[in-house]
Amino acid sequence: MNPTGKLEVVVALAEFVGILKGARFGTKLGKRNIAREHVTFRFDGTKLTVTIVDIAHTLPARGSWEGTVTVTLTFMGRFSKCPPTQDPLVIRYEDARLKIGTTSFPATWAP
């Protein structure tokens, strides 16, 4: 199943980077558990909710997005070491990939 509309939101770079910095998980989870964990992205019309290791972080956003997009925590962990620099930051899902700025990750979409 694929989304019926365009999945794209725009957020403030500083707020998104704040989420990345605040989502420290490292050695507490261990490598095996990190590989099993997922990060989800959901938009409600005014806020983007990013859930990392069962902790939800919300930030103001604008755009259009339906359903939930999921990536593995492993990809987000690598991404947090070299965060995006575009402000405002565009986050979109297309062709089974989540694109955050200029970086993309394999992702799944669910209604």
Quickly list its features.
3 helices; globular; alpha+beta; nine-stranded antiparallel sheet; single chain; 111 residues
Helix-strand category:
alpha+beta
- In terms of quaternary structure, the protein is single chain
Q: Spans with pLDDT under 50 lasting ≥5 residues?
A: none
Q: Report the total helices.
A: 3
The percent of residues in helical segments reads 25-40%
Shape estimate: globular
Beta-strand segment tally: 9
Q: Could you report the average pLDDT, rounded to the nearest whole number?
A: 85
Helix and strand sequence: EHHEEEEHEEEE
Q: What does the largest sheet look like? A: 9 strands, antiparallel
Could you give the distance between the termini? 9 Å
> Nearest-angstrom radius of gyration?
13 Å
Strand content: 35-45%
Strand order of the largest sheet: 8-7-6-1-4-3-2-5-9
Description:
This protein has 111 residues and is an alpha+beta fold. Helices cover 27% and strands 44% of the residues. The protein has three helices and nine strands. A nine-stranded antiparallel beta sheet has the order 8-7-6-1-4-3-2-5-9, with helices on both faces.
Chain-wise SSE layout:
Blueprint lengths: L6 E5 L1 H10 L3 H11 L1 E6 L3 E6 L2 E10 L3 E5 H9 L7 E6 L2 E4 L2 E4 L1 E3 L1
Antiparallel strand pairs: 1-4, 1-6, 2-3, 2-5, 3-4, 5-9, 6-7, 7-8
